[in-house]
Amino acid sequence: xxPNFKAHPWHGVSAGEDAPNVVNVFVEIVPSDTIKYEVDKExxxxxxxxxxxxxxxxxxxxxxxxxxxxxxxxxxxAIERGATDVSMGDHDPLDICVLSSxxxxxxxxxxxxxxxxxxxxxxxxxxxxxxxxxxxxxxAFGHFRDISELPEAEVKRLMHxxxxxxxxxxxxxxxxxxxxxxxEHAKKVIQASQEDYQNNYGG
Length: 203
Fold this sequence. Notes:
This protein has helices at 72-80, 152-164, 183-201; strands spanning 23-29, 35-39, 46-51, 61-64, 88-89, 95-99, 109-123, 126-127, 130-135, 175-182. It is globular, with a radius of gyration of 16 Å. It starts with 22 loop residues before the first strand and ends with a helix. Helix 1 packs antiparallel against helix 3. By secondary structure, it is α+β, with helices and mostly antiparallel strands. The strands form 2 sheets. A 5-stranded mixed beta barrel has the order 1-4-6-9-7. Strands 2-3 form a two-stranded antiparallel sheet. A hairpin with a 6-residue loop joins strand 2 (35-39) and strand 3 (46-51). The protein has one domain (23-201): Inorganic Pyrophosphatase.
């Protein structure tokens, strides 16, 4: 008899056979969510992180790349690209948002996506990169291969979310975006996060 078993979405799933060109993504949040969910690192179950306090709703599917971790190698990439206010990675799996025209109703699922760029975000001195990707086969976004090909309004919409989702209206900004980068550097960030994962968790 085969025992019931569910792989841990962070540790028990690969980043993808063709990573960093095509990566597996574990989706935690979808655009219709008014609560921020995240994977519980110990159990692998989705848990409630916090209700969204304001109207800034995630404009894309959002989750992480399995078997990645943001530590020294990711931090060093930020320093190499000119960040002077970063002292560590954020000690979480690598964040990724996936553009798709399809209405996916809930997170807790895996999909394949093609990285096309990202935002080098610095959050309280921590390197907290946000990879931007497109869902394979999506009829509206699936053909893009670099963030430079996206409409400017789409890039700004994503940037605005990440720059404001943690802030109360009367608070100073808690994070900033060092740069918007294309597919080539996004792949370097993914590889650096895989290196950090191996150095911290092995395998």
